[in-house]
Design a protein that fits this description.
The protein is mostly helical. Helix content is 75%, strand content 0%. The protein is built from 4 helices and no strands. The relative contact order is 0.09.
């Protein structure tokens, strides 16, 4: 669950109130994304997936994927072999995710 903060009341012009809701959403999601990114490094992926809101999980997963891919492409060495290993890891993560969503979350 993502909270929107305190003090948001539907008063005044709709445009003003919705603007404040949007600002609050951005602040909340930014804070949760930073916390989730730190938490990603400390937990198993499966545990991490369950503990954070879906929108945040999707964002952090994309950040980590892009970071890992960039490291492979810029890291030198055998890029082909590293990419093949990365694909294997990604497929394993997707299969684990599929198994998780088929079960009880």
């Amino acid at each position: 669950r993502v909270s929107l903060g305190k003090g948001l009341k539907a008063r005044g012009n709709v445009e003003d109130w919705l603007g404040k809701v949007e600002e609050s959403m951005v602040v909340s999601l930014r804070k949760l994304t930073k916390l989730s990114l730190t938490d990603y490094m400390m937990r198993s992926r499966e545990e991490w997936l369950i503990l954070h809101p879906s929108q945040v999980v999707l964002t952090v997963s994309q950040i980590v994927w892009a970071k890992n891919l960039t490291e492979i492409l810029n890291g030198g060495g055998d890029i082909q072999a590293n990419m093949e290993e990365f694909v294997t890891v990604c497929v394993k993560q997707l299969n684990n995710l599929a198994t998780m969503v088929r079960g009880d979350l």
